[in-house]
Amino acid sequence: MGIGVLEDRYLDRPPGTSKLGEDQGPSFDSASTSELKKDGEIILVPQPSDSPNDPLNWSMMRKNTIMIILAFSSGVTTSLGPMISPGLIIISKQFGVDPDTVSTFMVGSILLFTGAVTFFTASGANIWGKRPFFVISTVLLLISNVWGTFADSFPSLAAMRIFQGIASAPLETLVTSTVSDLFFVHQRGLRLSLWGLMLGTGVLLGQIISGFIIQSMGVSGTFAVSALIFCLILPLMYFVVVETTYTKPRGPGSVVDARPDSRASSIDDLKKDLKGDDPANEPKEGYKSQLRLFRGRLSDESFWKGVFKPVPLIMFPAVIFSTLVYASFFCWLLMIGVLSVNIFSEPPYNLNPAQIGLTNIPLAIGALIFSPISGWMADAVPVWMAKRNNGVFEPEFRLVLMLVAIPMSTAGFIGFGTSASKGLPLPWCLVWITMHSIAVPFASQASISYVIDCHTKDANQAFVTINFVKALLSFVASTVGNGLLAKFGPQTLFTGIAMLNLGISLLTIPSYIYGKRLRSWVARSDWAQKI
Fold first, then answer.
1. Tell me: the pLDDT tens digits for 268-326?
2. What is the pLDDT of residue 274?
3. Is the pTM higher than 0.90?
4. C-beta neighbour count of 96 within 10 angstroms
5. Which has more confidence, 27 or 5?
6. Which of 310, 314, 322 is nearest to 460 (CA)?
7. Contacts of residue 171, Cβ cutoff 8 Å, sequence gap at least 6
8. Is the N-terminal amide bond of 86 cis, ω within 30° of 0?
9. How far apart are CA 64 and CA 71, in angstroms?
10. How much of the chain is helix, strand and coil, in % rounded to 5?
11. Nearest to 253 by CA among 41, 20, 32
């Protein structure tokens, strides 16, 4: 029982544990499984209401369309940070600024301010909904890229990047909670993989494309092209991505998941909330009404309490684990892009910006191939394990994907550092860094889907915590990275990164074994309930 996940002595079903099938094991306490809505033999978690306005009841085409637009927009937004990497040396020479300062303000600052502002956007999204933040973010990003196109000094360029970081916050952090708004537990892995694919290819393809643009049109050309892309995204964002937050209680007989963080806790509570109203009789909201940008307050929660809520969430074991793993893997993917500029622009490689951008092609191909595979595995493996666990799903089953991520990333770092240090032919370097890019979607899938499953209602704030630590780590790394490379050389530096990343990744073992007990501890803790 548990497939290696230790059972808890206090709670049978701590937050995150749910039933995926009725043929093995007992039904949940809140309702018999014969009354529950299913997808084949899989019980839907969370259970949808009978309302046509419940996003869980929308057509799969509509939900997938919204997800594709958000994932693409998020990928383009994420690419804004590293896309400038091939031009860092050009900016340094053009404005007479040292490389570390250029890297700090062109790459690090956008990440840092994105991470800081997410505290406010996540809290605001919980109260006023996600749609206004998505639309406003798109408008501001369009403005920032127009600004970057005409910036003619380093201070102006630096200020624009800070503004761009602030504008990027919603599209980088609210997509994960949108997945939990639209999709059931057994469907989330594939959608998160789509988002992860867009992030990964955004980072990599952004540098490939921008390398050619910088080579032919200069640095300002990259912002001009980005502005055109956001001109296309804006109408899609406004006319298609409607509000996905559903605030009304789900009806009686629809409860399967009685976790404290589920959308509904008990039939009795629901009856009190509904006060006799039948969700099935709720009139379907018209398209014109759905286009409203502001709907008033969707929650009575305090905005400022929500702003500070991500801070204590770092004390939740699942959030600690996901934060460290996601931040580490994503940070090093970004740093490879920054540091490889110096490595590949010097002997024996002597590559120009366009050629440096092309070095990301194998990384992008790896991400394109393995992101969907990781997404399929993130759903298929836990369901397969749940069927062998008497039909009970544990979030820890998501962590199995780290079995792929850990060896690939460790070998990739050590191999790249050794190859670059010895001046081996370029294909050797590309093979090793591609191994890390393949590991990233598996680590991202494991960490993000795990924290969403463990703390569904706090998904917004939890990802704020994760993204801020990622931003802080990336800011520090981009600030000191070039200096460390010059001081220690590629072999020592990347071997050190490999050992640090490995140490963080090995936290998977205790997280898997003791995860259920830790979730129970959080659920039973008075301090956690007050957050």
1. 443 444 444 566 678 899 999 999 999 899 988 899 998 998 888 888 999 999 999 99
2. 41
3. no
4. 7
5. 5
6. 310
7. 70, 73, 74, 77, 134, 137, 138, 141
8. no
9. 10
10. 75, 0, 25
11. 32
CA 40 to mean position of chain CA atoms = 29
- Which tokens hold the place of 269? 């509570």
Residue 487 CB neighbours (<10 A): 10
In this structure, are residues 102 and 161 in contact, taking their beta carbons and an 8 Å threshold? no
Cα separation, 499 vs 12, whole angstroms: 38
Note the residue count of the chain.
Answer: 531
3-state secondary structure of 204: helix
* Cβ proximity of 306 and 122 under 8 Å: yes
Amino acid, res. 85:
S
Q: Tell me the β-bridge partners of 18.
A: 393
Closest CA to 70 of 224, 202, 186: 202
Backbone angle region of 25, left / alpha / beta, with phi > 0 → left and psi within -120 to 50 → alpha? left
pLDDT at 60: 95
Summarize pLDDT for 353-387 with one digit per residue, the tens: 888 888 888 988 888 889 889 988 988 999 899 98
C-alpha distances (whole Å) from 254 to each of 16, 17, 46, 76, 398 are: 18, 17, 9, 38, 26
Structural tokens at position 359: 């070095």
pLDDT at residue 266 above 80? Answer: no
Asked if 331 and 474 touch (Cβ cutoff 8 Å), the reply is: yes
CA distance 278 to 242: 24
Nearest C-alpha neighbor of 164 from the set 133, 139, 187: 139
Report the alpha-carbon distance of residue 214 to residue 198 in Å, rounded: 22
Burial tier of 430 (Cβ tally within 10 Å: 0-12, 13-18, 19+): buried
For residue 312, CA distances in Å to 32, 91, 469 come to: 37, 40, 13
Query: Which pLDDT tens digit goes with each residue over 107-163?
Result: 888 989 999 999 999 899 989 999 999 999 999 999 999 999 999 999 999 999 999
Domains identified in the chain and CATH numbers? 55-246+305-530 (1.20.1250.20)
Quickly list DSSP for 113-128: HHHHHHHHHHHHHHHH
